[in-house]
Amino acid sequence: EAGVAQSPRYKIIEKRQSVAFWCNPISGHATLYWYQQILGQGPKLLIQFQNNGVVDDSQLPKDRFSAERLKGVDSTLKIQPAKLEDSAVYLCASSLRQTFYEQYFGPGTRLTVT
Amino acid sequence: AQSVTQPDIHITVSEGASLELRCNYSYGATPYLFWYVQSPGQGLQLLLKYFSGDTLVQGIKGFEAEFKRSQSSFNLRKPSVHWSDAAEYFCAVGATGGGNKLTFGTGTQLKVEL
């Protein structure tokens, strides 16, 4: 069984530039999550999708962050414009359903904003 | 709102020694509790989870954890540590009414001395 795929693995951009991250969850997983993990901290949920609908985006900075999961499969997270404090690892996870099935995490994208 | 405290930022143990990583949670109802491990450059892998029932939970890689409601704790243990256990360990609490949302602690970095 293939795991959660993410790309790119690393990205370096200058502040005020835009960046996009891609995630392909495990086949058949209805729920998809994006987390932000700042160095020295635990992952923080940014947004959760159930199929192609948003379940929770309460901690997503909506003035600069956006995410979509148009066909209920893969997802894109975008930052526009980036700030220095956005430097972090962005983790994508998926689970079979919403009700506490195990979340499977991808390897993450390490973003550095200079 | 739920929260998790991992009081030890770094722990060093000798290979073959026993290990206990501490986790305290705050949540108004019966929590769902998880331990994840993260190796460098990797995503998070679930070690074990507690939903209900037996308060001593067995996980992968020889790890176990004990849920103690009176102490609001869910400490992770392993009787004999291997060098390959060196990684960062995260405790997380799930909101039972919140669609599988996890709140993570800040993590404990484990170093294993040979």
Features:
heterodimer; A: 114 residues; mainly beta; 7-stranded mixed beta sheet; 4-stranded antiparallel beta sheet; 11 strands; 48% strand; B: 114 residues; 6-stranded mixed beta sheet
Largest interface: A-B, 25 and 24 residues
Please bin the fraction of helical residues of chain A.
under 10%
What best-fitting shape of chain A do the alpha-carbon axes yield? globular
How many separate helices of chain B? 0
Number of H/I helices of chain A? 0
- What's the mean pLDDT score of chain A? 93
Secondary-structure-derived class of chain B: mainly beta
* Biggest sheet statistics of chain A: 7 strands, mixed
Radius of gyration of chain A: 13 Å
Write down how many β-strands of chain A occur, each being a DSSP E stretch of 2 or more residues: 11
Coarse structural class of chain A: mainly beta
Low-confidence stretches of chain A: none
- Quaternary organization: heterodimer
In which range does the helix fraction of chain B lie? under 10%
Instruction: Provide the succession of SSEs of chain A.
Output: EEEEEEEEEEE
Please tell me how large the radius of gyration of chain B is. Answer: 14 Å
Average pLDDT of chain B, rounded to a whole number, is: 92
Largest beta-sheet characterization of chain B: 6 strands, mixed
What is the straight-line distance between the termini of chain A? 37 Å
